Amino acid sequence: QVQLVESGGGLVRAGGSLRLSCAASDSIFNIDVMGWYRLPPGHERELVAAISRLGSTKYANSVKGRFTISRDNVKNMVYLEMTSLKPEDTAVYYCAGTKDAADLFLWARDDYWGQGTQVTVSS
């Protein structure tokens, strides 16, 4: 079972940038889709970015143009580069993966899930 560990969260001012990292304990090559969810306080979780095994990407409208997801199947890492951060980006960010997805944002199930990293954006 692949374990996912996120890092890179923190406190940043609006307009700033952060880079989140997700380290996998084993190979992610066979994980069809890797993604980043976020859970803002008082809201439901949201899939903000996803990337296929071959590098196709998709973003939620709320982050499009500001966030960039990438994955390194050799180093077993997934990244989320976040720029032009806004207070509404404040959330716990989770790295996740699925082996069963009809589309980058249509996951049949969450096969892998990290423990989360807090991102706080001050105004």
Structural class: mainly beta
> Major β-sheet, in short?
7 strands, mixed
Flag low-confidence runs: none
- Residues in helix, %: under 10%
Rough shape? globular
| Topology pattern, helix = H, strand = E | EEEEEEEEEEEEE
β-strand percent reads: over 45%
User: What is the strand tally?
Assistant: 13
Q: Round the mean pLDDT to the nearest integer and report it.
A: 96
The DSSP helix count reads: 0
Evaluate the radius of gyration. Answer: 13 Å
Q: Report the span from N to C terminus.
A: 40 Å
Protein architecture, described:
The chain has 123 residues and is mainly beta. Helices cover 0% and strands 53% of the residues. It contains no helices and 13 strands. Strands 2, 4, 5, 6, 9, 12 and 13 form a seven-stranded mixed beta sheet that branches. The chain has a four-stranded antiparallel beta sheet with strand order 1-3-8-7, with no helix packed on it. Strand 7 and strand 8 form a beta hairpin. The model has no long low-confidence stretch (mean pLDDT 96).
Summarize the structure.
This protein is mostly beta strands and 123 residues long.
Question: What's the helix and strand layout?
Answer:
Layout (H helix, E strand, L loop, with lengths): L3 E4 L2 E4 L4 E7 L8 E7 L6 E7 L4 E3 L7 E6 L4 E6 L8 E8 L2 E3 L2 E2 L4 E2 L3 E6 L1
Parallel strand pairs: 2-13
Antiparallel strand pairs: 1-3, 3-8, 4-5, 4-9, 5-6, 7-8, 9-12, 9-13, 10-11
Keyphrases for this structure?
seven-stranded mixed beta sheet, 123 residues
